[in-house]
Structure formats: structure tokens, C-alpha cells
Write the C-alpha cells for this entry.
Amino acid sequence: NAGVMQNPRHLVRRRGQEARLRCSPMKGHSHVYWYRQLPEEGLKFMVYLQKENIIDESGMPKERFSAEFPKEGPSILRIQQVVRGDSAAYFCASSPGTGSANEQFFGPGTRLTVL
Amino acid sequence: AQTVTQSQPEMSVQEAETVTLSCTYDTSESNYYLFWYKQPPSRQMILVIRQEAYKQQNATENRFSVNFQKAAKSFSLKISDSQLGDTAMYFCAFIPGTYKYIFGTGTRLKVLA
């Protein structure tokens, strides 16, 4: 059973460009979570999605950031008009259900560098 | 506010020795799960150990064990017989509700040969 897949692993963008980060959850998992890790910090929750639904986006910046988890295909975290402060590692996690008993399995992360 | 505090930004230990990483948290929930994750230079988040808050018995996984003090809201990680491969960032985390992990800021552990 393949783990959570994220691509690309590394992404370099210039200020003002768009960044698209992809996440394929583990097989059988219908819950996806995105976290952001700024340098020298822990992971911070951004958004929780189920297929075709955003359940909780309380950790997402109000502007320029969006996420989706379509019926088919991977979950996408999209950052428009990137700025230097968006440079971070973005982790996706998935779980088979919700509830704190359902451990979230993390992908390897995408490291975004904004020049 | 629900928070996790790791008060030791950096620690070092000699190979084969024992080290304890501290973690305290704050929540009004009565049931939750606690975790320790290891993040090596590759940045992959690797689950080290987990503890269910309603279980009094401390979790153990090979050389890794926890000291869980629910009343004190303390959840420390003990690594016995430290190995060079244990060098990494260690994050304490918990889920106070249903899905939102709360992470600490991490402790950078270096195992010395």
C-alpha cells in the first residue's frame, strides 16, 4: 500500500507566480489535510478536505490560497501570486476517517522556495 | 488556547546513552491522542510513538517510551541506547478534537559518536 504521495518535492517560483502542490492520499483514505511548516517551526494546520468538500479551512490565509480535493485525482493546494513569505514546506496528510483515533499519515512534503 | 510547548530547542546525547525530551500541552478536552514525530534532514514526518489520553499505561516502542502525566499535561519522550540515526528534529503533537493536529516547535536532537 503506497504511502501519501506529494509532488513536486521541490518547487521554485518567482514572486508573483502561481504554485500548485499536489497530494495523492493513501489508498482507501478519503480525508486530506494540509499543513505548513515555516523554517524552524512546527507544522501548522491549514485545511481539511473530503472528496469535493472543504470541511475546515480555518488555517488558510484568506487571500491567494485555495485548496480542492476533486472526485477524481489528487488534492491540490494552490497559491496565487506567491511572495517570499510563502517559502515553506507544505505537508499533506491523509486518514481513513476522522476522529482523533484516526492517525494521519504524512507525505514527504513539498518545499516551496520563492525567489 | 490549545498549545504544545517544547522547552528544549536543542539537545545532544552521547551514543548509547539515554535522553529525555520534554513536552507540555494545554487543552480542556478530556480525551485526545498524543504523538511524537521524528523529522530527519529529509523532512519526512515519521511517527515515533502515540499515546491515548484515556490509557494510564505509558506507551513503549522498542527504545522509545513516554512518560505521560495527564494531570500535569506532560508528555515526555525517552530514547534509550541512543543511536546516530536518532539525530533529527522531534515534534510533540496532539489532537484535542477530531482531526486538527497541534504541533510544538520541535527539539533538535544530536547524537554524538
Notes: The longest strand of chain A covers residues 43-50.
